[in-house]
Amino acid sequence: MKKGGILNPALNKLIAETGHTDYIVVTDAGLPLPENVNTRIDFALKPGTPTFLELLDTVLSELIVERIILAEEVKTISPEMHEEILKRFPGISVEYVPHVQFKQKTKEARGLVRSGEFTPYANVILVAGVAY
């Protein structure tokens, strides 16, 4: 048994196999998980559990992020969530795309990780960076 860090084997494997510029998508409970993406990890237990931010923080504890992609709608529909997401990425480039385009981009992901979040547009595409 691991003594700390991420305990979920599938999430550990996803992060370990992620290379530079690969996408990992952390989602709310409602975002469709495309069938063509091999790694789809659904942590949703009930509404709000786990929260999007809790799951995002867990992934960020072990993943180097070069930039992020958000749906532009998050700025107006869920401004508090938008601010919370941005707080986690100081100095990181942020790309905004329409939600329809965001959903298309998720089909390019190495993996998707679903939370139980019920806040609209609480989704982020993490573009992996490198440690050097």
Automatic annotation (TrEMBL):
Q: Does the keyword Cytoplasm apply?
A: yes
This protein's GO cellular component annotations are: cytosol
Keyword annotations for this protein, in alphabetical order, are: Carbohydrate metabolism, Cytoplasm, Isomerase
Q: Which SUPFAM superfamilies match?
A: RbsD-like
Q: Which domain of life is it from?
A: Bacteria
Protein localization = Cytoplasm
User: Where does the chain bind substrate?
Assistant: 28, 99, 121-123
Q: Which GO terms label this protein's molecular function in UniProt? A: D-ribose pyranase activity; intramolecular lyase activity; monosaccharide binding
EC number(s) recorded for this UniProt protein:
5.4.99.62
- Similarity comment: Belongs to the RbsD / FucU family. RbsD subfamily.
State its role.
Catalyzes the interconversion of beta-pyran and beta-furan forms of D-ribose.
- What's the name of the protein? D-ribose pyranase
